Amino acid sequence: MKRLIIMAVALFSFNSMALAASNKIVEMKTSEGDVTIELFEDKSPISTKNFLAYTNDKYYDGTVFHRVIKGFMIQGGGFTIKDKKLHPKETKAPIKNEATNGLSNKRGTLAMARTSDPDSATSQFFINHADNKALDYPNHGGGYAVFGKVTKGLDVLDKIANVTTGTMPHASGPSMGDVPTKEVKIISIKVVDASKESKESKESKESKAPKAATKG
After folding, report:
1. β-pair type (33-39, 173-180)
2. Average per-residue pLDDT in the chain?
3. Phi, psi at residue 105, to the nearest 5°?
4. What pLDDT was estimated at residue 22?
5. Mean pLDDT lowest among 93-107, 151-165, 193-207
6. 102: buried, middle or exposed (CB in 10 Å: 19+, 13-18, 0-12)?
7. Cα 73 to Cα 67: distance, rounded to the nearest angstrom
8. Model confidence band, residue 193 (pLDDT cutoffs 50, 70, 90)
9. Secondary structure of the chain as H, E, C letters
10. What is the mean predicted confidence (pLDDT) over 32-55?
11. pLDDT tens sequence across 56-76
12. Residue 39 and residue 79: Cα distance in Å, rounded?
């Protein structure tokens, strides 16, 4: 019986690793630096499919982080800036909220932005600058669905979170607050080869590891 339990645990661990290994990796190039992100397709299939659809359409290229609050989050994915005004982009249909997936809004995680309607998320997302458990299900009318995490580039997150902010006119509505006074642009978001990313990460760690001393 003990052997069967051990085998079952081992099989579960192997399946969990296989699922995690299948998660896609994207690279976000911003005006403040590059960020590598793992998408949780296994836990947030709807949100991930939605994000990838916008990514593959190059929708995010040229958009800005339009809402930045240090110690809370940075939000983007829905506006461009023209003539010193925020211009909203047209979006696809809203998606179902997946905040019940068990993932928490921890520092460095990505979550879908939405209105007071829990099933209203479209293109906009935010990256948590701190642990924001208050945004988890069932708070705020259903929580905010986490669908990814930053695996490289937390220093870029910190850099963006520390920019000076103010108000900016909206092209078709009231002015918005917490907008960076200096444009923080998403240059591009692209899917990258996960196996290549893993290999590069391994090689980077090996190069930083102390070398064993040898006799001359």
Report:
1. unpaired
2. 87
3. -75, 75
4. 83
5. 193-207
6. exposed
7. 8
8. confident
9. CHHHHHHHHHHHHHHHHHHHHHCCEEEEEECCEEEEEEECCCCCHHHHHHHHHHHHCCCCCCCEEEEEECCCEEEECCEEEECCEEEECCCCCCECCCHHHCCCCCCCEEEECCCCCCCCECCCEEEECCCCHHHCCCHHHHCCCEEEEEEECHHHHHHHHCCCEEEEEECCEEEEEEEECCCCEEEEEEEECHHHHHHHHHHHHHHHCCCCCCCC
10. 98
11. 999 999 999 999 999 999 999
12. 22
* Cα 126 to the center of its chain, rounded Å: 7
pLDDT band at 200 (very low <50, low <70, confident <90, very high): low
**Nearest-CA neighbor of 159 among 150, 167, 168?**
150
Burial of 138 (0-12, 13-18, 19+ CB in 10 A): exposed
What confidence tier does 212 reach under pLDDT thresholds 50, 70, 90? very low
Tokens 């836990």 sit at which residue?
43
Domains of the chain: 23-192 (2.40.100.10)
Which residue would you say has higher pLDDT here, 163 or 18? 163
Encoded amino acid at 89, one letter: K
